């Protein structure tokens, strides 16, 4: 029998234990000849919430298989700073996006933060802002207001287009049609702020679906459409944002229900069940498998499926996009920059070190000397290919341009994480391109042979990209899989054999 290392959920201690094996009697239902009834691949938000859901349904015969040495997935912090001045910052998700309005529906991530006393703070993204260009301070905040109005107008028109059953187009087309295409670098910087950054698409307007961007925004931020609120809270808890998921797991998860440091290589499936093989050749068998790996991991082909996934599933996986969002942290001896929460820098090149956030602010970490700049999309990939020192040099050139009359010193600490290069993620989160259709989304979350289940932020129709998207997808998958485990009937999730056009292309029927 193989021994697999199990580190612990909250990092209290590490120990070794055996995986459930042929001889291990299982607590629920009848004795199984498999390692578990359900294998949950991935211990991020979706995986942990799926496990919790099974547990609530009385099903404890599951095993979470996770490559890293802790739970939380993309929820990852980093300790930055010189000795005596160190802070926990978030290299992954940082905001609870959409909070709660009155006693309306709360974002479940906010509910977890409240429950586990994870500190978060309202972040005024649109109101507390300073604007710059290459020659220093330059007030174009009126253009930001215009940009905000343009985005909501574009969202409203998207709603009309849906009603009229008009085809989806890109946000680029939407800006063109409404006469809102940026005409200069300031308008471009404000459009970047709205589209690529604040709405978190992490890609440029030509790479975004018009309709899906509008509803993704509505379902999270617009209370008329069932959204939570239009506010964003920044997590500043020094235990790390991941505490919400690790503390939640600690309430119900037993050590033998998690296998950390376990990298999945192969997933074999048949009518009989599923066999998962790890990097060290350990095999795990189960009746059902829930895969919560990032879309990027599935796209890249890190996991071999045997037999290969059906074409409708492959098409869905390869048609959504994994975008990249990069936060570059800097610490200085002392703050010399803006006293607002946010700043925009307009450059001749759209997306070149454009969004600045001050953590050395009374609401966050006053006196920390911390500031960070965010880049996204293709620019993220560009800097991932560069050395840290070269990126730092570019960032400093921009900062010195923003402060022509200040002697800007070099930073005392500098850090960014390369999300696209990380084989466990291969990007930061999914984004919906204009060529992706609702049928593709249905196929992304559909089951294969009622054995393979899929969940994670990318499978969420309404909240793709967000933590709460991962949460709701984990919840739903847990509920559906529980029905299958309980039996007698397992319906699985439906798929479309092919996603087709509403009206055929005329030339296709012309025979030569
Ligand atoms: C930089 C950044 C900023 C973000 N900002 C926000 C934000 O402010 N607000 C917000 O709501 N969302 C934000 N997000 C998105 C949010 O992080 C995700 O939506 C969410 O964490 C996804 O959870 P998940 O469970 O679907 O996937 P994951 O967290 O990716 O979980 C999947 C797990 O599978 C594991 N895994 C992968 N491959 C293997 C393998 N071969 N074998 C074993 N295990 C494997 C991974 O280690 C991981 O733990 C951000 C993401 C990033 C990266
Ligand atoms: C994340 O934060 C915790 C708590 O402050 C810390 O112990 C841990 O080292 C941090 N992780 C990294 C990678 O810095
Ligand atoms: C929510 O608030 C409204 C108005 O404040 C109140 O009328 C209603 O009873 C509340 N609902 C719940 C479930 O508390
Ligand atoms: C920098 O100083 C020059 C000369 O004193 C002044 O004209 C300019 O406005 C200053 N620029 C900024 C951004 O403060
Ligand atoms: C932008 O809009 C906000 C909120 O409506 C308003 O308070 C602010 O004065 C506006 N700013 C500019 C420069 O027009
Ligand atoms: C988004 O919300 C706005 C305002 O509530 C609404 O007019 C529009 O139809 C919605 N768009 C979509 C695509 O749901």
TrEMBL record:
Per UniProt, the enzyme's principal EC class comes to oxidoreductase
**Named cofactor requirement(s):** FAD
> Which first-to-last residue range defines the signal peptide?
1-18
**Key words of the record:** FAD, Flavoprotein, Oxidoreductase, Signal
Q: Name one Pfam family in it.
A: Amino_oxidase
Give TM segment ranges. Answer: none
According to its UniProt record, the EC number is 1.4.3.-
| Residues the record lists as binding FAD | 66-67, 264
Which molecular function GO terms apply here? oxidoreductase activity
Query: Highest taxon of the source?
Result: Eukaryota
InterPro entries named among the record's database cross-references: Amino_oxidase, FAD/NAD-bd_sf, Flavin_amine_oxidase, Flavin_monoamine_oxidase
In the record, the note on similarity to other proteins reads:
Belongs to the flavin monoamine oxidase family.
> Mind telling me what this protein is named?
Amine oxidase
Origin species:
Suillus luteus UH-Slu-Lm8-n1
């Amino acid at each position: 029998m193989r021994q697999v290392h199990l580190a612990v959920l909250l990092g209290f201690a590490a120990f070794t234990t055996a995986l459930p094996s042929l001889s291990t009697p299982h607590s629920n239902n009848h004795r199984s000849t498999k390692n578990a009834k359900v294998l949950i691949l991935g211990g991020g938000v979706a995986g942990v919430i799926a496990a919790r859901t099974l547990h609530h349904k009385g099903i404890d015969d599951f095993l979470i298989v996770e490559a890293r040495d802790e739970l939380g997935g993309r929820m990852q912090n980093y300790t930055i700073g010189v000795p005596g001045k160190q802070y926990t910052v978030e290299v992954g998700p940082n905001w609870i996006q959409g909070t709660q309005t009155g006693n309306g529906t709360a974002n479940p991530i906010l509910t977890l933060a409240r429950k586990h006393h994870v500190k978060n703070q309202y972040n005024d993204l649109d109101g507390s802002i300073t604007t710059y260009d290459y020659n220093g301070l330059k007030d174009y905040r009126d253009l930001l207001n215009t940009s905000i109005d343009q985005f909501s107008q574009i969202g409203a028109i998207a709603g009309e287009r849906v009603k009229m059953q008009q085809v989806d187009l890109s946000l680029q087309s939407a800006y063109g049609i409404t006469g809102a295409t940026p005409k200069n670098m300031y308008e471009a910087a404000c459009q970047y702020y709205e589209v690529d950054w604040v709405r978190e698409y992490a890609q440029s307007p030509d790479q975004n679906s018009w309709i899906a961007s509008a509803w993704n925004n509505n379902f999270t931020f617009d209370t008329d459409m069932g959204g939570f609120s239009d506010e964003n809270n920044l997590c500043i808890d020094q235990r790390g944002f991941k505490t919400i998921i690790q503390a939640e797991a600690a309430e119900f998860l037993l050590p033998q229900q998690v296998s950390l440091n376990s990298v999945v290589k192969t997933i074999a499936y048949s009518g009989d069940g599923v066999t998962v093989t790890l990097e060290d050749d350990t095999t795990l068998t189960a009746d059902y498998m829930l895969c919560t790996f990032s879309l990027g991991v599935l796209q890249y082909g890190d996991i071999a499926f045997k037999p290969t996934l059906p074409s409708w599933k492959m098409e869905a996986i390869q048609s959504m996009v994994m975008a990249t969002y990069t936060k570059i942290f800097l610490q200085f001896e002392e703050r010399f920059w803006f006293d607002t929460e946010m700043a925009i820098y307009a450059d001749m090149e759209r997306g070149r070190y454009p969004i600045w956030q001050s953590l050395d602010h009374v609401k966050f970490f006053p006196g920390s000397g911390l500031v960070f700049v965010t880049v996204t999309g293709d620019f993220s990939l560009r800097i991932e290919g560069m050395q840290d020192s070269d990126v730092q040099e570019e960032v400093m050139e921009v900062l010195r341009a923003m402060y022509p009359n200040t002697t800007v010193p070099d930073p005392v600490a500098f850090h960014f994480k390369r999300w696209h290069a990380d084989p466990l993620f291969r990007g930061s989160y999914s984004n919906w391109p204009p060529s992706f259709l609702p049928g593709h989304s249905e196929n992304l979350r559909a089951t294969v042979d009622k054995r393979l289940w899929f969940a994670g932020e990318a499978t969420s129709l309404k909240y793709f990209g967000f933590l709460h998207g991962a949460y709701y997808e984990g919840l739903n998958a847990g509920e559906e899989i529980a029905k299958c485990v309980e039996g007698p009937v397992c319906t699985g999730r439906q798929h479309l054999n092919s996603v087709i056009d509403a009206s055929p292309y005329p030339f296709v029927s012309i025979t030569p």
